[in-house]
Amino acid sequence: MSKQISIFIALLLAVAFIAACGGASNNGGTAGPSNGSSNGAPGKELKLAFVTNNASDYWTIARKGVEKADGELNDVRVEFKLPGEGTAAEQKRIIDDLTSTGVQGIAISPVDPDNQTQLINDAAKKTLVITQDSDAPTSDRALYIGTDNVAAGRQAGELVKEALPNGGKIMVFVGKSDARNAAERYQGLKEALQGSNVEIIDIRTDDTDRARAKTNAADTLVKYPDIAGMVGLWSYNGPAIVNAVKEAGKLDKVKIVCFDEEDETLAGVKDGGIFATVVQQPFEFGYQSVILMSKILKGDKSVIPSNKQINVPTLVVKKETVEEFTKKINALRGR
């Protein structure tokens, strides 16, 4: 009897040892790279991250999209990262931290795509990386979700021509001119204005500093008293420009075309201080980024287009459409 008990105990220990080894082999896996390999096994929570390029209010709407997708997917948890300084160095710190903690998918809007290609490539060796809002097409990112910024720039250019039928001098404003979305919008703007009587004097940058953005606009009004128009390429440039023009008492003389849907921008469109704004759909950037990363990590590569780009169309908001648009956007903001 003693011998039988000993054998039984030995068998139990053997079974326990095998189970322990099998359990260990299913833990501690690393995140799949951007070629679509995954750790998205059923029942296992996916750790994803959405990284912006600054702390602008523009990203509030994108966050709502992220939260909606996060709420719909029971096996996904998303971190929303807002770089307060809006610098490439800060984004690198965030990405390094995320990859070191085993995040499996990152959607990033790179501040300086050309100089961040290596950062994205290094991250893509450890995790799935997609770009949103601003692309880095020569990198190893899996896909881009966002605006066709050249087309959006052309759209802004057509609005400038509409606002200034007789032509005139304009100044362009943006946070960083080397950010890909800024460069592409500027390219599209110039293409649309080619052959017209509208002359672009220059482009002024502010490094995502709102106070500096307003100072740039105010200085332009002093230096170029005959300025006919101002174009803001990033979301906060619209409010900065309209406030500077208002303080200078030139709302009736300077036509403003800008991007996005900050509260002051929409208020400016409503009262006529801003001629029009070209709005993106950042809610879709957030929502689709999370949904598609989840699908890719679970092995569905069919969601990646052959050109690796998913373009979300832009809309034009003018005085006659601003009230309806504001109601819709406030609903997305949860107001």
Q: What is the ordering of alpha helices and beta strands?
A: HEHEHEHEEHEHEHEHEHEHEEH
**Strand element count:** 12
Amino- and carboxy-terminal Cα gap: 76 Å
Biggest β-sheet: strands ordered side by side in the sheet: 2-1-3-4-5-11
The share of residues in extended strands comes to 15-25%
Unreliable segments of 5+ consecutive residues: 1-40
Indicate the overall shape. elongated
Instruction: Specify the helix fraction band.
Output: 40-55%
Largest sheet: 6 strands, parallel
> What is the overall number of helices?
11
CA gyration radius, whole angstroms: 25 Å
Which whole number gives the mean pLDDT?
88
Determine the structural class based on helices, strands and strand pairing.
Answer: alpha/beta
Can you describe what's shown?
The protein is α/β, with parallel strands linked by helices and 335 residues long. 46% of the residues lie in helices and 17% in strands. It has helices at residues 2-25, 58-72, 88-100, 113-124, 149-163, 180-193, 210-223, 237-247, 263-271, 282-297, 322-332; strands spanning 46-51, 76-81, 105-108, 128-132, 144-146, 168-174, 198-205, 229-232, 255-259, 276-279, 309-311, 315-317. The strands form 2 sheets. The protein has a 6-stranded parallel β-sheet with strand order 2-1-3-4-5-11, with helices on both faces. Strands 7-6-8-9-10-12 form a 6-stranded mixed β-sheet, with helices on both faces. Strand 9, helix 9 (263-271) and strand 10 (276-279) form a beta-alpha-beta unit. The radius of gyration is 25 Å and the shape is elongated.
